[in-house]
Amino acid sequence: MNSSATLAIDLGGTRIKAGIVVDNDIVALRVVPTEDEKGFERVLDNIITVSEQLLREWPAGAIGLSLPAVVDIARGTVVDVRKNLAGLIGFPLVEVLQKRFVLPVAVENDARLYGLGEMLGGVARGTESFVCLTIGTGIGCCVVNDGYILRGRHGTAGILGGHLCIETYGPPCTCGNIGCVEALCSAPALVAAMKEDLPAY
Question: Model's pTM, two decimal places?
Fold first, then answer.
């Protein structure tokens, strides 16, 4: 086991990106489809499979998993997430992964981890207060105030920036609302808008 190595996994809307990180350097990387359209069990299988592949090559001392979800970090469970991953809600994810790999496991909201990374080694290094937005299949948000990630009493503060309604009669959003920032400005929404506005070639 290499205690200085960490298996970092990012569960995205379309892809699972997993890598071994040693001293802030990514020394191994795998990218596989999320396949959440096939259900939560398939997603979990994909996470386990890619983790096994990487850990065979680079034994690590811990696992960190980022999710596009509202996470109870104390219990290691998901509180809320989009429909295709609803099976994660209440599922003992940390416990299952700890037993499978016999390693300490931490789970957190993906945008918060993105913001933490920027604060520790990115463009926000040395900045005490900032807002970080992630734009992909969805839109994530992290708010850092006086050097601390804003969480709020129920763990939802600062992460729901993608689900603010900005267009009253806008398109439907995956959260069930209409006209959300995510429905209008996520990567799929931007691609769809470009296809609509640009002439076909």
Answer: 0.86
**In the chain, where does DSSP find H-type helix?**
40-57, 93-101, 110-121, 181-185, 187-197
Residue 144: DSSP 8-state:
E
DSSP-assigned letter for residue 101: H
Q: Which residues pair with 132 in a beta bridge?
A: 142
Residue-level pLDDT at 197? 79
Q: What is the pLDDT confidence band of residue 16, given thresholds at 50, 70 and 90?
A: very high
CA distance 127 to 113: 16
For residue 183, give the 3-state DSSP assignment.
helix
3-state secondary structure of 162: helix
Q: What distance lies between CA 100 and its chain's CA centroid? A: 21
Length of the chain: 201
How open is the CA angle 90-96-102, to the nearest 5 degrees? 150
Residues 6+ apart with CB under 8 A from 93: 65, 76, 77, 78, 107
